[in-house]
């Protein structure tokens, strides 16, 4: 249906849903008349166990307050510069992993690798802590990464699982597993938040801390409620991780389907980065992205 129509309605026994890929409709809902298209209680109930009262789940004053603070913080030079350093560092690590796989003719899951790379980057920007899920050097970080991915997948599954609320009430099946995974996520995140709060409150530690990450920036605004910080930062991680990784994955897929374009892309990257050979082309391409 979506191949024939940019906007269509799906009617089920319990819901009526409208889907659109029309740019004019998307702009109208997300920009022109945004106030009229809230997430609503239905989406909030599905997402809140993982995302809490974050920007992806709330409406009204709560959304506006988070949007205002977030917009200001992301416009600061400190956070922009810090983000650039973090992403370039992880791009170099990603390029090294890809080069090693290429040299050894190793088959890799490119989307999984992109997901881990973007998670490492946004986690560092969010908490100021190295997760290193790409290389798996931290067992605790790997456990968090796996639990976070599984929690995200099972939360989305609620949209098609008509019995998820019953499963949650009985604590069985996918809902029992979701609960366990969220507990792993919360334990790791709350530990980092409490550690950062203690550092910020300690005059000796505070003077030596670089307040570049999102968590530190929010703590400087005197927002010290761990639950609030947990919710808003997990929402940032969701936003920064999946979007970039999915876009890169689709880009690579389309390149593979159209080999005649690959050389043109490589040449454009080399020209933009002022290089004359293919040395570290993977790094240059990812940096240009």
TrEMBL record:
Keywords: Heme, Iron, Metal-binding, Monooxygenase, Oxidoreductase. InterPro entries: Cyt_P450, Cyt_P450_E_grp-I, Cyt_P450_sf. Gene3D superfamilies: Cytochrome P450. Its cofactor is heme. GO terms for molecular function: heme binding; iron ion binding; monooxygenase activity; oxidoreductase activity, acting on paired donors, with incorporation or reduction of molecular oxygen. The keyword Iron applies. Belongs to the cytochrome P450 family. This is Cytochrome P450. It comes from Acer negundo. The lineage of its organism: Eukaryota, Viridiplantae, Streptophyta, Embryophyta, Tracheophyta.
